[in-house]
Amino acid sequence: MTMIKKILALKEERQATILAHNYQIPEVQDIADLVGDSLELSRAAARLDSEVIIFCGVDFMAETAAILSPQKKVVLPENGAWCPMAHMITPEQLRDLKALHPEAAVVCYVNSTAEIKAESDVCCTSANGVQVVNSLSEKEVIFVPDRNLAAYVARHTDKKIIPWNGYCYVHDHLTAEEVRAARAEHPNAEVLVHPECRPEVIDQADFVYSTAGMGRHALAGAAREFIIGTETGMIYRLKKENPLKEFYPLSKNAICQNMKKTDLAKVLRALQTLQSQVTVPEEIAVRARRSIERMLAVKN
Ligand code: 13P
Ligand code: SF4
């Protein structure tokens, strides 16, 4: 039996669902039940009734699924798949920041640890950061850990945003010069970038979207060529859904190493062993769940 057939048979037997982030390698995207951005995957984790979720992504995504569904087994096929940005702030640092700004609400990007979510009032993703911040009654908002998403949100709200100095090394490396060079090479292409990019890159773009937003835009729009300012895994999905359109990565070096660690052999092993199971201690999960559920209740 081929590896893919084994995965599909075992998935059936285990009544498992395979979720994959848009940055996963093509083979993993192809066997997933749902490929999406962080918001879509969080929503799926909340509504799914499978007993087992195989989460092909990074640590904070599997943790979010485990927090929303403590009765399910959430399995991360690759133990070392973690998001460096999510670990750029500690709970102690956030508590110190809160003490400095006692009137401020705390919004954490979903790319954060369960402990940070537990210390926050509400969570957000790159798809709904602006809506979440604007839904708050407070005039000041501590926004952690991504300084670039914080700067993007600050441009779209009247609230005072107090950012943390975290960043995604993949998006933070993209430059305005690369946008200019890509436009010169592909003058008819639209430039779509992720809000984890630096403000000067965002200034050069035509549109700013989460990865799912890029997918919707490419499907619906009249343009036939696109320069994609995010992790290169996104290009596979875009090409698959739009075979007659052209997609160029803003940088071929925009690769999240940890997103690429999951492969089919690891997915099969995860289904066989149900390892590594991701769990969150209930005293943290109960507070983190409040932040995530508050986000899921915000319309966007
Ligand atoms: P989205 O897919 O939610 O846009 O997030 C990108 C990301 O960097 C996830 O780690
Ligand atoms: Fe984290 Fe950036 Fe990788 Fe997303 S792309 S998982 S934010 S390091």
What does this structure look like?
By secondary structure, this protein is an alpha/beta fold. The chain has three domains: 3-81 and 259-279, 3-Layer(aba) Sandwich (Rossmann fold); 85-168 and 284-297, 3-Layer(aba) Sandwich (Rossmann fold), CATH 3.40.50.10800; 174-249, NadA-like (Rossmann fold, 3-Layer(aba) Sandwich). 44% of the residues lie in helices and 16% in strands. It has 15 helices and twelve strands. The strands form three sheets. Strands 2-1-3-4 form a four-stranded parallel beta sheet, with helices on both faces. It has a four-stranded parallel beta sheet with strand order 6-5-7-8, sandwiched between helices. Helix 2 (26-31) links the parallel strand 1 and strand 2 (34-36). Helix 4 packs across helix 15. The chain is globular, with a radius of gyration of 19 Å. The termini are far apart. The relative contact order is 0.17. The model has no long low-confidence stretch (mean pLDDT 97). Iron/sulfur cluster binds next to helix 9.
